[in-house]
């Protein structure tokens, strides 16, 4: 069993700086509000501290954080009380940018959880479905299906075609 | 083109600078706590226990102490239940011993009990401090027992006005230097504070080198470790493990601490 790493504050701050935006977006896709997203981001890095995994590359590091954040958020959402939360917090983002962007964001946030993450990783982070499959620990066919379904939903909401990338 | 709009949309989701700073601060604070925890690990056997209670287990494993001074004072303690153990006052305890501080969340630190032992919470005044040595058939552990007058009870069966004996994981005062005891080492006579020790029961014991010490023979209560479960009122501000109690990290005085403890106990 690999020995866990104790990272210095500097090392940890560097990792945080490299991946905070990604982790934040993944968490926001699930939590839908900034307060819970902050908690989830912190908890993701707490798990990094606790587990102390060694990474072969920054990509490996990023993939670990995405998967951990995703699993963590799913666990939180499974709690019974969480199911009763309001779903409108992402509406607060409206008005701070072009109307088309708000419409797109709103449509994406309205997707079911697994679709949202897949869409984010595919269209924003640029991962292909095989890579997303590895990161999220889901079969490739499931990821492809999620992307396909998501495209269908977004096409209905936004109209027009959604390019492959 | 929708893809560009996707990227623009996701770009809007980012922490503001205040949130960014808050998250990084919390993460680094946790990292520091973890490093202190790892630094202090010496007893590998306690790793078998549930991590949630490692700190408390560490205390039990190394415990020792005294309770009933002999009539002539300064002699061995009378241990009614224990066997293979002698406990006596220690005039000049050595330093150097380290303790395991497992990470616990704030909620875990405020848990009401552990293995049937209640975790009390009260405000009190340290009236007496006695450093002791526990001799387990030749193997020696140095600890301290503080007698605390209970002023106000927040939780537990202890009564206001009573004086309780609390076993500490390390000696107090003098030239004693021990790691991970930055709070307990300041429990000198006259120190006021909020204390959250665990209440020993008939089956709480410490075993070492063939000796068995039943903790009730020397104290009614014990502190989980030398850093947490205590908030001391000192002239320069409250002394406690700020890294562990994140909700009170900015506490400026004991009133802040009292509010924090009340909130945590109410949850």
Structural class of chain A: mainly alpha
Structural shape of chain A: globular
Count every helix of chain B, treating DSSP H or I runs of 4 or more residues as helices. Answer: 5
Largest sheet of chain A: none
Secondary-structure element pattern of chain A, one letter each: HHHHHHH
Radius of gyration of chain A in whole Å, from Cα? 16 Å
- Characterize the main sheet of chain B: 8 strands, mixed
* Percent range for β-strand residues of chain A: under 5%
Apparent shape of chain B: elongated
Compact overview of the structure:
The complex is a heterodimer of chains A (about 160) and B (about 270). Chain A is mainly alpha-helical and about 160 residues long.
What descriptors fit this protein?
heterodimer, A: 165 residues, mainly alpha, 0% strand, B: 267 residues, alpha+beta, eight-stranded mixed sheet, 5 helices, 22% helix, 25% strand, elongated
What report would you give on this structure?
The complex is a heterodimer of chains A (165) and B (267). Chain A is mostly helical and 165 residues long. Helices cover 68% and strands 0% of the residues of chain A. Chain A contains 7 helices and no strands. The N and C termini of chain A lie far apart (40 Å). Chain B contains 5 helices and 12 strands. Chain B has helices at 2-11, 17-39, 54-62, 106-109, 254-266, and strands at residues 85-89, 113-114, 117-118, 121-136, 139-155, 163-168, 192-195, 198-199, 205-208, 211-214, 221-222, 230-233. In chain B, the strands form 3 sheets. In chain B, strands 1, 4, 5, 6, 7, 8, 11 and 12 form an 8-stranded mixed beta sheet that branches. A two-stranded antiparallel sheet of chain B has the order 2-3. In chain B, strands 9-10 form a two-stranded antiparallel ribbon. In chain B, strand 9 (205-208) and strand 10 (211-214) form a beta hairpin. The radius of gyration of chain B is 21 Å and the shape is elongated. Chain A binds chain B through residues 6-7, 9, 12-13, 16, 20-21, 24-25, 28, 34, 37-38, 41-42, 45-46, 49-50, 93, 96-98, 100-102, 104-105, 108, 119-120, 123-124, 154, 158, 160-163, 165, and chain B through 1-3, 5-10, 12-15, 19-20, 22-24, 26-28, 30-32, 34-35, 38, 103.
